[in-house]
Predict the structure.
Amino acid sequence: MARRKGLVINDRQLDRCDDLLQKLKEVSGSSFLALISTSGQPITTASDEYHPETLSLASLAASSFAATQQLAKILDENEFTLLFHEGKALNLHVSQVTDQVLLIVTFGRETQVGKVRLYTQRAIEVLRQIFDGPEDENTPAMDAGFEAAAGTAMDDLFKDM
């Protein structure tokens, strides 16, 4: 019988996650971000205002992601690592960070989906290192240099439009 390793996060990892989520919120134009476990428990959030439904959102997003993983198996796909829901006022982006951690991002219709996806992908790379990598001072952070490079990449992508 396979036993699932429990998710353990120390204070330093949590502080780094909080800093990264706040930076991601600022550069991506997102309104609410949350790291959650795949079992549906909130880990940490970044938001301008209190979000009373965080527990429900975490639980439902994790359930939806689990259902999507089963869809991938049915379609002979190794995995789907992203969920995206588009609403009239808000969009919901759920990404897999590790086997046990998901990232929820909500943002308004005025924010470009490509911008959110670009910044979120880089943030996920850093988050994976925080959760999976060695616990030392050298784990990279999402810095201003990345923000400038990502802005240039976005401009290049849409220059012909």
